[in-house]
């Protein structure tokens, strides 16, 4: 199969082996980048930590100075790359998917890659999934742009990169697929679903090869919650809904206040805050739950649990709100787990013979993630896969439902990603017309039956129109020195008098790149609502097809796909 026919097949919004193939290739490339990112972070951490993300074993001086050193590296990176302000992470990827078909700027990705490494190695309370999504999306969409694939397929490639990045980062292939559909794309389409699954499988397989077949939170014991706990779980879920509302509101408020100050001042302040909190509460540093897991095993005192919860909450809101590059999911899971340990402390008065700290920690992770992101299904599968415990599904659903309803319905709390996008004034919504037309590449609908004439006279045009084949489009180029083309056709709205020639109409044809979707073609013809665009590949003088406005209108009348 030629590359031309390969691109044409990808331009159609339907399942195909071609789309699956680029999903696998894009997922592989994204996984390699994420594995490199993760190895870099862990290698730096092991230079001064006994265990990855465990800051309880280092001295107070190192806990304070490490975030400061990390910020100095981030500022040096910004100075070298001349990057004054960066929009990164999951919100930025959502914006680029909706507004730019998933194209991610290279400098932005470079800043995210190294900035994320420094932030995570420096002990900041941020997650690695933010950089993972960004880097995975950028690496896979880069492949599509180099191959000049249709924009609609690059959008799918970007989604595959996100799935592979999440799967390679946390070893959660199923949760990665649902995360893409529920949080990133916010739609379920079969022709996208299959390539995303394949990319997620690739991410998981490569994670197994690089880090082994383990899950992030397998240190939790098997849950022992029974039906008698469900009223308590409902109460717990309601509390998590309020906690999620407070978290989202605090983060947006911090973003709003800090945006008035220079990036250097914000990052230095973030380092001082993180260093001070880490000095007092070392368990609040880092992204994972290694230190918190040991605390749960020891049935920690109430004041210790509260201090860690408050410290983790403040540290996460402060560093993310001040612009430290990193993800929000890891810290959100940690906050939910600590809140679960706090709930378990009070439950122990009702059931003193059994410790439920691990059980409620898992429930807290599920409820907090669902309420913060407004993504209940993704939260459920994330916690199931991270803990490798299918039996927590039912009690987790109880917590997730109550937390989500409290947060979204009663407190009107919206996804933190959407709130970040609105604060940064980044568009993420497309009109119904755009949503339909963006799924079709122009290559899938263009007409290749056309003839081009250079500077013809009126008699030649009339002769060709009179004898043209059925459906053949006649294009003229009035001036050989300019890339201007016009579509000429008989004007059916004007009836000639006896003895007169049929009226001829010429319409200017906008140029549309072969990678474009029907959306670009539609808006190029939107004002005149007639005529056609011509499709070119690389050079505007090389016409490869014609797309009439009526054909685009037909796609719209058929409805969504």
UniProtKB/TrEMBL annotation:
Membrane-topology descriptor: Multi-pass membrane protein
Segments traversing the membrane: 21-41, 61-80, 156-180, 192-212, 219-243, 263-281, 302-322, 328-351, 360-384, 390-411
CDD domains per UniProt: Voltage_gated_ClC
Domain of life (superkingdom): Bacteria
Record keywords, A-Z: Chloride, Chloride channel, Ion channel, Ion transport, Membrane, Transmembrane, Transmembrane helix, Transport
Subcellular location: Membrane
Name this polypeptide is given: Chloride channel protein
The species this protein was found in: Thalassotalea nanhaiensis
Upper taxonomic lineage: Bacteria, Pseudomonadati, Pseudomonadota, Gammaproteobacteria, Alteromonadales
């Amino acid at each position: 199969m030629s590359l031309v026919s390969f691109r044409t097949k990808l331009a159609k919004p339907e399942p195909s082996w071609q789309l699956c193939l680029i999903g696998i290739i894009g997922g592989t490339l994204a996984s390699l980048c994420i594995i490199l990112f993760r190895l870099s972070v862990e290698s730096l951490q092991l230079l001064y930590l006994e265990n990855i993300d465990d800051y309880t074993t280092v001295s107070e001086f190192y806990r304070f100075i490490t975030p400061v050193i990390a910020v100095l590296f981030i500022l040096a990176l910004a100075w070298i790359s001349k990057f004054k302000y960066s929009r990164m992470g999951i919100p930025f990827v959502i914006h680029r998917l909706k507004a730019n078909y998933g194209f991610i700027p290279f400098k932005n990705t470079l800043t995210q890659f190294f900035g994320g490494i420094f932030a995570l190695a420096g002990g900041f309370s941020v997650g690695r999934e933010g950089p993972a999504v960004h880097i995975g999306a950028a690496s896979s969409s880069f492949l599509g742009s180099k191959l000049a694939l249709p924009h609609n397929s690059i959008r799918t490639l970007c989604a595959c990169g996100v799935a592979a990045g999440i799967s390679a980062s946390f070893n959660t292939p199923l949760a990665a697929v649902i995360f893409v559909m529920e949080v990133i794309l916010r739609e379920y389409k079969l022709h996208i679903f299959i390539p995303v699954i394949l990319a997620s499988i690739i991410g998981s397989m490569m994670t197994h090869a690089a880090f082994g077949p383990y899950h992030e939170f397998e240190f939790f014991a098997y849950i022992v919650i029974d039906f008698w706990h469900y009223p308590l779980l409902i109460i717990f879920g309601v509390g998590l809904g309020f906690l999620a509302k407070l978290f989202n509101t605090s983060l947006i408020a911090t973003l709003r206040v800090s945006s008035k100050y220079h990036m250097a001042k914000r990052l230095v302040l973030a380092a001082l805050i993180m260093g001070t909190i880490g000095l007092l509460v070392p368990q609040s540093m880092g992204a994972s739950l290694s230190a918190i897991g040991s605390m749960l095993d020891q049935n920690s005192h109430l004041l210790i649990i509260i201090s860690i919860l408050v410290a983790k909450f403040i540290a996460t809101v402060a560093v993310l709100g001040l612009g430290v590059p990193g993800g929000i999911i890891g810290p959100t899971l940690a906050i939910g787990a600590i809140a679960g340990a706090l709930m378990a402390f009070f439950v122990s008065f009702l059931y003193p013979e059994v410790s439920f700290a691990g059980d409620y920690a898992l429930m807290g992770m599920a409820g907090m993630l669902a309420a913060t992101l407004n993504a209940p299904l993704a939260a459920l599968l994330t916690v199931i896969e991270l803990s490798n415990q299918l039996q927590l599904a039912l009690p987790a659903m109880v917590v997730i439902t109550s937390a989500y309803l409290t947060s979204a319905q009663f407190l009107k709390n919206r996804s933190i990603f959407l709130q970040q996008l609105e604060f940064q004034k980044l568009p993420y919504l497309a009109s119904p017309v755009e949503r339909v037309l963006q799924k079709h590449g122009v290559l899938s609908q263009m007409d290749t039956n056309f003839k081009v004439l250079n500077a013809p006279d009126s008699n030649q045009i009339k002769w060709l129109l009179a004898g043209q084949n059925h459906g053949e489009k006649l294009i003229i180029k009035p001036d050989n020195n300019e890339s201007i083309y016009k579509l000429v056709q008989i004007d059916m709205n004007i009836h000639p008098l006896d003895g007169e020639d049929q009226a001829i109409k010429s319409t200017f044809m906008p140029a549309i790149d072969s990678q474009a979707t029907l959306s670009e073609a539609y808006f190029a013809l939107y004002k005149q609502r007639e005529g056609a665009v011509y499709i070119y590949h690389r050079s505007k003088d090389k016409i490869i097809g014609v797309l009439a406005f009526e054909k685009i209108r037909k796609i719209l009348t058929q409805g969504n796909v």
